[in-house]
Amino acid sequence: MAPTLRHLVLVGLMGSGKSTVARRLSQRLHHRMVDLDAVVEAQAGCTIAELFARRGEAAFRDMESQVLAAQLASPEPSVIATGGGAVVREGNRHALAEAPDVRVVWLDARPEDLVRRVGGSAATRPLLADDPRGVLERLDRERRPLYGEVADHRIDTAGRSLDEVVEAVDTWWRMQCRSGGEEEAS
């Protein structure tokens, strides 16, 4: 018998809407909402940009991996918004792909749409540096196969409103819960 599904995890590039969609879904589903970046910031006592500047990306990724593992182990049902780079660590991908009570949805957004959303926020998004478009295009090429590796379902956000994306994820999640999560991922 398949385990009860407990955690819905959202992955995708920065600016794809993971935190906003997770917040809305958590309200609909009456699940706890977890924003991994916010938890890392709370534990580090500083912003992610400050953590990058003080300790480097590796220290941030270490904390991110620890927080993800703790959230996946939590018995409380939750909607988890990962950071855009959570999938770069093989251990994180393994944890997401192998957990029997977790389903992962990839919010797939085009780099040109992301530039409009986050292009001016290099101060709070350290990876964007001086070339937001170039960085987002490179990250998309590098991470696309990794998101595909962990995702049980992909939602193309192009041309969809926030409400439409939330509805699409909610509908898919509820179908997974009814079927015990045994249906073929799309």
Q: Main attributes?
A:
186 residues; alpha/beta; 13% strand
How would you characterize the overall build of this protein?
The chain has 8 helices and 5 strands, in the order E-H-E-H-H-H-E-H-E-H-H-E-H. The longest helix has 19 residues, at 132-150. Helix 2 (36-44) crosses helix 4 (57-73) and helix 6 crosses helix 7 (132-150). The chain has a 5-stranded parallel sheet, sandwiched between helices. The chain has helices at residues 18-29, 36-44, 48-55, 57-73, 90-98, 111-118, 132-150, 162-179, and strands at 7-11, 32-35, 78-81, 102-108, 153-156. It is globular and about 45 Å long. By secondary structure, the chain is α/β, with parallel strands linked by helices.
Q: From N to C, what is the helix and strand string?
A: EHEHHHEHEHHEH
Count of individual beta strands: 5
Mean residue pLDDT: 89
Query: How much of the sequence is in beta strands?
Result: 5-15%
Q: What are the segments in which pLDDT stays under 50 over at least 5 consecutive residues? A: none
- Largest sheet: spatial strand order: 2-3-1-4-5
Structural class: alpha/beta
Q: Roughly how much helix do the residues carry, as a percent range?
A: 40-55%
Number of helices: 8
**What's the end-to-end separation, in Å?**
22 Å
So what's the overall shape? globular
Main sheet makeup? 5 strands, parallel
Radius of gyration: 16 Å
